[in-house]
Amino acid sequence: MSFQLEMDRSVKRSGSNVVLALDLPLDQPRHLLSRSTEVLERVHPHVCAVKLNRQLVLPLGLFNGVQEIVSLAHDRELPVIMDCKINDVGHTNRAIAECYFKAGFDAVTASPFVGWDEGLQPVFEVAQQMRRGVLLLVFMSHKGAWEGYGQTIHDPETRKKVPQYVVFAEKALSWNADGVIVGATYPEKIREVHAILGKRVPIYSPGVGVQGGDVESAIKAGARYLIVGRAITLAENPAESAKLVRDAAKQCLRE
Ligand code: 3DU
User: Fold this and answer.
1) Phi, psi (5° rounding) for residue 123?
2) Is ligand 1 within 6 A of the CB of residue 83?
3) pTM given for the model
4) How far is it, in rounded angstroms, from Cα 45 to Cα 18?
5) CB 141 within 8 A of CB 110
6) 40-76 residues labelled b (16+ CB within 10 A) or e (exposed)
7) I want to staple 82 with a disulfide (CB 3.0 to 4.6 A). Which of 74, 99, 105, 176 is the partner?
8) Cα(22) to centroid of ligand 1, in Å?
9) Mean pLDDT of successive 10-residue segments in the chain (255 residues)?
10) How many angstroms separate the CA atoms of 96 and 27, rounded?
């Protein structure tokens, strides 16, 4: 089954389009592992997928602690995304993607700044071989995202002046990406990217809550999935917070 189909099924099954970013403050590895599994156990009925970050992989190790979390998510029927933002040269990119896929991850994130030839082509190749997904960063959620994703460039193919993120959205189509990332803090960018991608490539939007993004504006602009971390993981009641975000998103999708 393709990653996109897996996500569609998970949304139908869970009734949620919230991806839990399982980010927790640094701690002793064994505390981090038990806290991560505890949050996941509480929150899993209200989300459609889990996203892990290197801030968890580094202290826990990929084939020890992290694999345990991946298995737990799979036992709860949730796909797991590794937010590793791959951005090196091809042979190391391929090895990095392969490691995460062997550990059980269903998709990885990657940066289109490195290009296709000897860049992301090997990542898409290994993802296709192992039937996993690749999500491309198109416009990140932080303030400085403008400096890279927002710059105006001369498109070498058309020789026209275009915003960098528009070129990246077009690459998502031509490279057959399984999704793109556009920050919820820039709903106008979500709208523009959605106009390019339509229903073919879904938009995953991080930045809701602590970073200042808003559920309603992200969904109404065209985000299919919301990636939410600290607003859930650091809440007094993570399950309740996840439920609130899920219900707010559902409400906007109905309107
Ligand atoms: O701000 P939050 O705590 O909801 O976390 C957002 C997560 O999404 C976090 O793991 C971060 O690494 C990831 N992310 C962004 O915040 C922005 C991006 O453009 C891409 C990923």
Assistant:
1) -70, -45
2) yes
3) 0.98
4) 11
5) no
6) beebbebbbbbbbbeebbebbebeebbbebbebbeee
7) 105
8) 10
9) 96 98 97 98 98 97 95 98 98 98 98 98 98 98 97 88 97 98 98 98 97 96 98 98 97 88
10) 25
pLDDT for residue 159: 86
Cross-strand pairs, 154: 161
- Residues labelled catalytic: 85
Tokens 């997904």 locate to 133
Q: Ligand 1 pocket check: which of 227, 228, 241, 245 to mutate, most ligand atoms within 8 Å of Cβ?
A: 227
Residue entry with tokens 């602009």:
221
The structure tokens 């690749």 sit at 134
pLDDT per residue over 59-116, tens digit each?
999 998 999 999 999 999 999 999 999 999 999 999 999 999 999 999 999 999 999 9
Q: Is the CB of 57 under 6 A from ligand 1?
A: no
Rg (CA), the chain: 17
